[in-house]
Specification:
- The chain is built from 3 helices and 24 strands.
- With 425 residues, it is mostly beta strands.
- The relative contact order is 0.16.
């Protein structure tokens, strides 16, 4: 699916979320270990050059990884082993990140480039050691056009056809020897973690009429399903309730409530088009998609010319549905039908991000549309989108406890450091 003008659901501001902090495997000087829940990553990732003269070992990796994995602000540490050190004059380490985009042309952005000389031949060190240690911290952002952008995750996406696009964000770490001109390089996965700043709120309660009782931590998104026929049917008022934070962990899904309100005759006729409570794999769902659906839609927009920087929407885009709602009826009255449920999200490796020329955005998409082939549908259909953010990790109560302790410590330090007033003397 593509167009030159993506849908305008980004008018609502995207919600804020909390970047998961970076961690070290061992306590720092000002820290102490209180408990050890899971064993730390203690394995080395090994990559050798074709001639076997250089071996790159990256520490603190899981045993079963295909590629090394690093998170937000992580330290890339390890050793470079050399089986032959003769004729080596320089050993260099490079950490690189690149965005390659093809869309009506080709563009390339260098996201990060860290070069460090591990050893250089000189009078004090005429012979290269057989191994060299290194530790380099990954940047958390990069600069483009005078603006800072968060370093995007590893990602690859393409839209086949004409017009089409392909985009790749990739990272690598390399060890290079000079004179011998031997290089060993491996790509790595950059997977910055994030989590919501608030927990998922308790579910809404409903009353006998079928309506849900509003709560501050839930937001209602109303829409009206207009009836097209003149057979006495009235419009249907739809209320979609979502947590106000609009930040959701992928593994937890998205809780929701939805109600359909109208007169008894209209709701009876609407039953054929309302939410389906059958399993998606049942025979009744195989013939055609349900008329009422709530999904998570991911929109990837590619714009090699970066016209968005000039305030103009351009480029082409593709839409992927990465989550589908399951409905459970909770309350029914002659004038209101209510459902609750969760949108289960498929496992994904990259959360939403925006960099010059490429953006990945997620939204909750409510659609009510008659089945394909319906000659005289009784209603016009609706398509409502609510921007959301997806995170890698769920909310953690220890965050609030840690923040509270930090605030109390800061207040205590200010009180202790404040000099007494002359009146007190």
């Amino acid at each position: 699916m593509y167009t030159t003008r993506p849908p305008a659901y980004t008018t609502r501001r995207l919600p804020s979320f909390r970047r998961a902090p970076s961690y070290s495997a061992e306590p720092r000087q000002d820290e102490q270990r209180l408990a050890l829940g899971a064993s730390p990553r203690a394995h080395n990732f090994r990559k050798a050059s074709k001639n076997g003269e250089i071996v790159l070992r990256l520490a603190q990796q899981n045993a079963d990884v295909v590629l090394p994995v690093y998170g937000l602000g992580d330290i890339v540490n390890g050793r470079v082993h050399l089986t032959r050190t003769d004729n080596v004059s320089v050993v260099e380490l490079q950490i690189e990140g690149h965005l390659k985009l093809k869309e009506g042309g080709e563009t390339h952005h260098k996201l990060c480039l860290d070069k460090v000389i591990l050893w250089r031949k000189n009078a004090r060190s005429p012979v290269c050691p057989s191994f060299l240690r290194f530790a380099r911290r990954l940047p958390t952002s990069f600069e483009f056009g005078g603006k800072n952008y968060p370093l995007p995750p590893s990602h690859s996406v393409k839209l086949k056809g004409l017009p089409g696009f392909s985009a790749t964000i990739e990272y690598s770490v390399s060890a290079i020897t000079r004179v011998g001109n031997t290089t060993v390089s491996t790509p790595f996965v950059y997977y910055p973690r994030s989590r919501s700043a608030a927990p998922v709120p308790p579910p809404l309660l409903s009353i006998e009429s079928g309506q849900f009782i509003p709560q501050p931590d839930w937001t209602t998104y109303p829409s009206v399903l207009k009836m097209k026929t003149k057979n006495g049917l009235r419009d249907v008022n739809i209320k979609l309730h979502l947590p106000s934070s609009r930040v959701f962990c992928v593994s937890e899904g998205v809780p929701f409530h939805i109600s359909f309100e109208s007169d008894e005759g209209t709701l009876t006729a609407f039953t054929l088009y309302g939410p389906s409570t059958t399993e998606s794999g049942s025979e009744s769902r195989k013939s055609s998609a349900p008329a009422t659906r709530i999904r998570v839609m991911r929109r990837t927009t590619a714009d090699a010319r970066n016209t968005a920087a000039d305030g103009v929407q351009g480029g082409i885009w593709r839409a992927d549905y990465i989550g589908e709602a399951k409905f459970t009826p909770v309350c029914t009255s002659p004038t209101c039908k209510s459902f609750t449920g969760t949108i289960e999200i498929e496992p994904i490796t990259a959360m939403g991000f925006h960099v010059p020329g490429l953006s990945v955005q997620d939204c909750i998409l409510l659609t009510v549309a008659p089945a394909e082939g319906t000659r005289t549908p009784p209603f016009a259909g609706i398509r409502e989108a609510v921007p959301v953010r997806l995170t890698t990790d769920p909310w953690d109560a220890s965050d609030e406890l840690e923040e509270g302790i930090n605030i109390e410590v800061a207040i205590a330090r200010r009180s202790m450091s404040a000099s007494p007033s002359r009146a007190a003397l």
